[in-house]
């Protein structure tokens, strides 16, 4: 029952910062509708200038509350801000309960802020690919800052954060000692570690553990060493908030570091490399399944593997030879 | 291999009404029916609700009422929707209010009213039928 404008018209309006067209185009991309690739081709030349900030951490760490404050800081600096908040989809029903907007309300009347909730779904091309596209649409809309907020649970969400220029990882007191902090994973992707709820018991000890874990790592001369910033992002009185200014300043410092050392070039290179890999994987799979469709061969292959007459690697090799290398 | 478009629903409460149990229960039921629910919570203003509905490109806005403000806020939301030319979103209302107010609410612009005690299936079916047409 949704009314339709042409894709070209919607992109034209998007570039003039029309939020309804932005919203419709994101829906189109999220649902991998027919014009998806065309939209992204049209949008692409208008992207690449925004600062992309990733925020991740366990549920309840305070990501959305902190994001709400950071939006305010970026607005004070005169930037328009786009925000993508990713929450999990139910693996059973496919539905989702997206509740982040509740804590992102300080700017609900501000036309310079565009917030979009996204369910993690089971994206064909992966969550990270869909999120890349949504971020690009927000860039083309004219947002100078795009914030991506995810739970950071699982590889797919860690991939999402890889596209950020500056990545914040939120932790709270009582989440484990330095041994937990030293384990591989989410801490390694942080440019800035935010110890939120720093007014809780055990915050001092957590801060020591985090700093201890960081200093146990090795960093080259001139390389960015992750900072730890303590914050209190929720308080009944504004004067009880802590660390928000320091966090904003540390983000600016990291941005300056990226520009000065040209590390931003590497971030962008890695991002495009990863994205190309994802698109290739997705498109190749489509070509192959399209080639097999209606031939009954897919079933034959699967059954021969189950019956151990064949193995998956040999089948993939044979299929690739048939449907790809022959040009079909 | 296009996936079927997910139905997106904005669930919210307007004004000073602080009872959100019903809104949360309905949100959960819609999630279990495979829909994506944007839960905006309590104490919202009509302007904020309509702006969120535009940004999120939702198919449905669901208003939950309990404190007797349904006849005051409904026209304000309808007016805000008109002002922003939001004319392709279903507007539903649910909660606790007198049955005799239903025709008035429908006249004001609510597409369908579900009072407390409505069957889940009736809400889900109504949304599915009317969004996917």
From TrEMBL, chain A:
GO molecular function: GTP binding; GTPase activity
Alphabetical UniProt keywords: Chaperone, GTP-binding, Hydrolase, Nucleotide-binding
A Pfam family reported for this protein in Swiss-Prot or TrEMBL: MeaB
Domain of life: Bacteria
Transmembrane annotation, as ranges: none
Family to which this protein belongs: Belongs to the SIMIBI class G3E GTPase family. ArgK/MeaB subfamily.
Protein name as annotated: Methylmalonyl Co-A mutase-associated GTPase MeaB
Gene giving rise to this polypeptide: meaB
């Amino acid at each position: 029952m949704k009314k339709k404008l042409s894709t070209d018209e919607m992109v034209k309006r998007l570039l003039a910062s029309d939020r309804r067209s932005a919203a419709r185009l994101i829906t189109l991309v999220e649902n991998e509708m027919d014009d998806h690739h065309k939209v992204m081709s049209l949008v692409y030349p208008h992207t690449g200038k925004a600062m992309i900030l990733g925020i991740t951490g366990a549920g309840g760490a305070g990501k959305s509350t902190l994001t709400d404050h950071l939006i305010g800081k970026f607005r004070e600096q005169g930037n328009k801000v786009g925000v993508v908040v990713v929450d999990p989809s139910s693996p059973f029903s496919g539905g989702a309960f997206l509740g982040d907007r509740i804590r992102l309300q300080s700017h609900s009347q501000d036309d310079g802020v565009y917030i979009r909730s996204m369910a993690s779904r089971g994206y064909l091309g992966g969550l990270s690919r869909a999120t890349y596209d949504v971020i690009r649409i927000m860039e083309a809309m004219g947002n100078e800052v795009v914030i991506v907020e995810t739970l950071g649970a699982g590889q797919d969400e860690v991939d999402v954060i890889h596209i950020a220029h500056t990545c914040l990882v939120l932790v709270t007191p009582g989440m484990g000692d330095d041994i937990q902090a030293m384990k591989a994973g989410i801490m390694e992707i942080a440019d800035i570690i935010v110890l939120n709820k720093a007014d809780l018991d055990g915050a001092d000890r957590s801060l020591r553990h985090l700093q201890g874990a960081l200093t146990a790592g090795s960093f080259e001369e001139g390389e960015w060493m992750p900072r730890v910033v303590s914050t209190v992002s929720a308080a009944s009185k504004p004067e009880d908030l802590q660390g928000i200014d320091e966090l904003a300043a540390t983000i600016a410092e990291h941005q300056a570091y990226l520009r000065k050392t040209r590390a931003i070039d590497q971030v962008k290179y890695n991002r495009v490399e990863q994205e190309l890999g994802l698109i290739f994987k997705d498109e190749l799979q489509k070509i192959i399944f399209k080639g097999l469709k209606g031939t009954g061969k897919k079933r034959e292959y699967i059954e021969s593997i189950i019956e151990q007459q064949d193995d998956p690697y040999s089948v993939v090799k044979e299929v690739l030879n048939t449907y790809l290398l022959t040009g079909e | 291999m296009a996936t079927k478009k997910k139905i997106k629903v904005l669930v919210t409460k307007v004004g000073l009404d602080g009872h959100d149990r019903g809104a949360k229960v309905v949100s959960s039921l819609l999630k279990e029916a495979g829909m994506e629910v944007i839960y905006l919570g309590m104490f919202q203003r009509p302007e904020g609700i309509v702006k969120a509905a535009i940004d999120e490109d939702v198919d449905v806005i669901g208003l939950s009422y309990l404190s007797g403000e349904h006849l005051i806020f409904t026209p304000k939301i309808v007016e805000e929707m008109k002002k922003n030319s939001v004319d392709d979103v279903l507007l539903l209302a649910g909660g606790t209010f007198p049955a005799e107010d239903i025709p008035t609410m429908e006249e004001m612009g609510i597409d369908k009213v579900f009072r407390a005690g409505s069957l889940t299936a009736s809400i889900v079916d109504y949304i599915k039928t009317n969004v996917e047409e």
